[in-house]
Every structure is written in structure tokens, then in C-alpha cells.
Write a structure and sequence with these properties.
This protein is an alpha/beta fold. It has 3 domains: 256 residues, Aldehyde Dehydrogenase, Chain A, domain 1 (3-Layer(aba) Sandwich), CATH 3.40.605; 194 residues, Aldehyde Dehydrogenase, Chain A, domain 2 (3-Layer(aba) Sandwich); 26 residues. The chain is 41% helix and 19% strand. The protein has 17 helices and 20 strands. The strands form 5 sheets. The protein has a 7-stranded mixed sheet, sandwiched between helices.
Length: 540
């Protein structure tokens, strides 16, 4: 493993001057650009600003204005005013804003690639995953949202005499709480469909990676989004979380399962809607007929993209006993060849972890597994020579139930490989978890792969791919089963969740009650015959 840059200092230094690159990362945008983006934050007069360190260097990125409770409530008041006019825009006009945004994202991607790398510590190829996902989401809803939101006619209770339709209304103001690990893509997946549906949005991105969300916010307004239809606030959840929950007409949250459960309890008291994308312990099943080299290559991407800090990353691999040893050798070889680095180019295959907390959690899990008898076949140690938060991509075998990572989510570049004897065992072990977010199946027989995939209790399952096939297909829903979440993002579901369905029916001529003077028993008999006849008609 090699680095593309010299070792970086592990402690934050003095704040960089206006001409210095963001976070002290060579080649990054100038600090003044970061300061320009922070001026897009809707609040920040009532609380002291905070400064987050760049993962690659440990140096400060920029001062971020922090909101107080009362400020956030004022932001929601303004959002409600703007939402009324935004909802009056024809759905096709709102679509055009998203299509222009998709073009801007692709045209100006170099700047945000730098920002994502500097804020999150990603390799550039992983930062590009965010750019491509953002453009795909904007394009999908830019092409399809008007159709999905259109009034839908339904067969009435009495043919010809009853006209019924389903109308979609925006929820109002949507509160979006975004995580630090995928700051651009998850912002797009959660904010853009809410806007397309005619809602206003108040978003709270994580302080660590707020600049990426603010960059997309800037481009959205350049694409024609009215000012204040989407507002961004920053602050700790303990300081402004209650205001977001209490003022939102719908809450979209991505984060840990414990936090999601607490939020769900708060939101339930107000009887407002919510969607939660939470934790995962995602399995990969390698069937005996799989191409071992192809599966090993896929595992490297599935396990170590974004240094494993991805909700759909694979952390468990079940390999048939007939190819287990061969697979472990291939995976260890490919993992050992993965290049680590912090350069703002496409040279490195993996970047660093994002925070000191994540580094500590990953180190603790690996050390605990080793103490419980696991064998480290690749990686297994931090790399301070490359930067303060680098940790080698790690492959473990012999992990027992005594190890914490046997069941707990690591959220880092660590995967455990297990052997199995038959497919039923593999499926049972894949499902032996409280989580159900993503899964992967590898085989030469695509039909067999689909059969196995349907038996795994996960919101998304990829055959011969780790996560990208479902992640990049915006037309299908993404979300978790069991304790991995509630609700879906992407597809029609990711749009319609931000709406209220209203049924409107117009009755002409006959009422749905007996005629004057008609015996109720005779009316009931006639209606029963009519319902039976309708059942035989097509499309009823």
C-alpha cells in the first residue's frame, strides 16, 4: 500500500488564510470558497460557530455557523410562506429545475469532488459515486415526477354514475436530517423528490460534511429553485433536533438505529409522517458456482468503498466450503493491492476514515475480534504514516460470536468471511440479524441468484454486484427491512411519501342508498347482484 501524499500532521493547526486550500489539502478549493458556501446557511447568529477537521490532514476546514432552537423555528415559518407559492408551480416546471440541476452537477463536478474528498476523506472514485448518484436522482425526478404526481382516475362505485380520482398534495415543509458519510448523494435522494412534490425543505446536514450539501443547494438555486424553498441549518441534534421534529410536516432521517428509534417516538406524538434509513450488517453470499476472482473483486468494492462508511457496505461474506479457501486468498491478495491515498485525483483506491470516533470504533472492533480468536488475513492496523485517520482495509476469518463485530455494525473497512455447507444454511445466516438493509449474491447462474436473493430479508439485494446495481437504479426503491429503517427513498415511493393522497368522488344520478319507497332488503339484493356482476368485468 502506498500513499500519494506525504504523511500529514495528526493535530489541527492554525486556521488557514484566505488563499490557503480548504483543510490544508493540496489542490483543494481556496478557503474563501468554503467561506462563501457557509454564507448560504439560513441561521447562525445565536450560537458559536464550530470548525471541523479535514480527515486527510487534521487541519480545520472552515467555521460553520450554528443555529439555536428559536432560529430554526423562524426558518420553518419562512419555509411555510415560500412553500405555498412553490406548490403552485406546475409539476412540469418543477421538473425542469431538476433537469437543469442535473446538467449543472455534471458540468461543475470537479469542485464538489474536491469538497467531498476534503470533508469526508474519500478516494476520488468514491466521491464520483456521489456525483453520479446525484445526477441520476435529479434526472429521474426531472423526467418522471410530473407523471407520478398526476391525478389518477379510478373506477367508481357505480360505473358511469360515480367518478373517482386520487389527487396528490404536498406535505408542506419537510425536515431532512442528513448524515456525514454520503453528504452529496443522500442530500439529493432525500431533498430533490421532496421539492419535486411541491414541498419546501429545511435540511440539517452533519457539520463534518456540510459544504457538499451547501454546494448542491447553491446549484439548485442557479437551476431556478426559488430562494428559501430549500433552506439549510447547522447545529447539534441536541440543540435543534426538537425544533426540526416539532415544526416539520414530514421528517426524513438517515443515521443510527438507536437515534432513529428515539426520533420515531418523538414524531409519533405529533402523528406526522417519517422515513428512517438506519443501520445495517449487510451480507454477501458466494454460491459454489461463482467466479471466484470476479466475486473477490466485487467484494473489494462492496466492502471498502468510502472506507466501508456506507450504509449498504458488505460486512459479512458467506462462501461455500468448496471455494472458501480460494476466495479468501483472492480477496486477501486484492485487498493488499488496494492503494491508499489522499490525493485529489483518481490514483487511490481507498481514502481514510472520516472522524477520530470512526477510527477508534474500527480499531476496537478489529482488536476485539482478534482477541476472540479471529485471524487477520489482510490489513488490521491504522496507518498514521498516511494521515491521521487512515486504517488498512481488513479481512478477517475465524470470527466467533464472542466478537462484537459478529453482530454489530462496524461502519469501516472491515469484513469477516465465513464458510457454509449448503444454500439453506447461507440464507439462514444471512438473515440471522436484526438488520435488513442490503445484501449481495454471487453466481454464474443469474436465475439461481435471483431465487436466492428473494429469500434474503433485505430492502435491496444485488446479484453479481455489491450494492451499486440497486443504488444506481433510481427507478426502484431503496430502504431497510427490520431495524434498518422505515420507508423508502428513490422510485415512485421516494416521491409519493412526501405527499398526502386525497380521494375525490362525484356521484351523479343514483344515490348509494335505496330509492324513496324501495324496501332496504330489495335494494341490498339488487346491489349484491350488481357487485357480483362488476366482479366479472375486466379491470374492476
Amino acid at each position: 500500500m502506498t500513499s500519494t501524499v506525504p504523511p500529514a500532521p495528526s493535530q489541527p493547526g492554525s486556521t488557514a488564510g484566505p488563499a490557503d486550500p480548504v483543510g490544508g489539502v493540496p489542490g483543494a478549493p481556496a478557503t474563501r470558497r468554503a467561506e462563501q458556501l457557509t454564507r448560504r446557511v439560513a441561521t447562525g447568529l445565536d450560537a458559536a460557530p464550530v470548525t471541523m477537521p479535514a480527515p486527510f490532514t487534521g487541519l480545520p476546514i472552515t467555521a460553520l455557523p450554528q443555529a439555536a432552537d428559536a432560529e430554526v423555528r423562524r426558518v420553518f415559518t419562512r419555509a411555510r410562506e415560500v412553500q405555498l407559492s412553490w406548490a403552485e408551480w406546475p409539476a412540469r416546471e418543477r421538473q425542469r429545475v431538476l433537469l437543469r440541476l442535473a446538467d449543472l452537477v455534471l458540468a461543475q463536478q470537479d469542485e464538489v469532488l474536491d469538497l467531498v474528498q476534503v470533508e469526508a476523506g474519500k478516494a476520488r472514485i468514491d466521491a464520483f459515486d456521489e456525483v453520479s448518484a446525484t445526477a441520476l436522482v435529479a434526472s429521474y425526478y426531472g423526467k418522471h415526477s410530473a407523471r407520478l404526481l398526476a391525478e389518477r382516475r379510478a373506477a367508481g362505485a357505480l360505473p358511469v354514475l360515480t367518478k373517482a380520482s386520487e389527487v396528490r398534495h404536498p406535505k408542506g415543509v419537510v425536515g431532512v436530517v442528513s448524515p456525514w458519510n454520503y453528504p452529496l448523494a443522500l442530500t439529493a435522494m432525500d431533498v430533490l423528490p421532496a421539492l419535486a412534490a411541491g414541498n419546501a425543505v429545511v435540511q440539517k446536514p452533519d457539520n463534518q460534511t456540510a459544504l457538499s450539501a451547501l454546494w448542491l443547494h447553491e446549484l439548485a438555486e442557479q437551476a431556478g429553485l426559488p430562494a428559501d424553498a430549500w433552506q439549510v441549518v447547522l447545529g447539534r441534534g441536541s440543540a435543534i433536533g426538537d425544533a426540526i421534529v416539532e415544526e416539520s410536516d414530514y421528517v426524513c432521517f438517515t443515521g443510527s438505529t438507536p437515534t432513529g428509534k428515539r426520533l420515531a417516538g418523538q414524531i409519533a406524538e405529533r402523528l406526522t409522517g417519517y422515513s428512517l434509513e438506519l443501520g445495517g450488517k449487510n451480507p454477501m453470499v458466494v454460491l459454489p458456482d461463482a467466479d471466484v476472482q470476479q466475486a473477490a473483486a466485487g467484494a473489494v468494492t462492496a466492502c471498502f468503498s468510502s472506507a466501508g462508511q456506507l450504509c449498504v457496505s458488505v460486512e459479512r461474506i458467506y462462501v461455500h466450503e468448496s471455494i472458501h479457501d480460494e476466495f479468501v486468498r483472492a480477496l486477501a491478495e486484492r485487498t493488499g493491492a488496494l492503494t491508499l491515498g489522499s490525493g485529489l485525483d483518481y490514483h487511490a483506491g481507498m481514502g481514510s476514515l472520516t472522524s477520530q470516533d470512526q477510527l477508534a470504533a474500527v480499531s476496537a472492533h478489529v482488536d476485539d475480534a482478534r482477541a476472540a480468536g479471529a485471524t487477520v488475513v489482510a490489513g488490521g492496523r491504522p496507518r498514521p504514516d498516511l494521515g491521521p485517520l487512515f486504517y488498512e482495509p481488513t479481512v478477517l476469518t475465524g470470527v466467533t460470536e464472542r466478537a462484537k463485530l459478529f453482530r454489530e455494525e462496524t461502519f469501516g473497512p472491515v469484513v469477516a468471511v465465513y464458510r457454509y455447507s449448503d444454500v439453506d444454511e447461507a440464507v439462514a445466516r444471512a438473515n440471522d440479524t436484526e438488520f435488513g438493509l442490503n445484501a449481495s449474491v454471487w453466481t454464474r447462474d443469474a436465475r439461481r441468484g435471483e431465487e436466492v436473493a428473494r429469500r434474503i430479508k433485505a430492502g435491496t439485494v444485488n446479484v453479481n454486484e455489491g450494492y451499486a446495481a440497486t443504488f444506481g437504479t433510481v427507478g426502484v426503491p431503496m430502504g431497510g427491512m427490520k431495524e434498518s429503517g422505515v420507508g423508502r427513498r428513490n422510485s415512485a415511493e421516494g416521491l409519493l411519501k412526501y405527499t398526502e393522497a386525497q380521494a375525490v368522488a362525484v356521484q351523479r344520478g343514483l344515490r348509494l342508498r335505496p330509492f324513496r319507497g324501495m324496501p332496504p332488503r330489495l335494494w341490498a339484493k339488487a346491489m349484491s347482484a350488481g357487485i357480483a356482476a362488476l366482479r366479472r368485468l375486466p379491470r374492476r
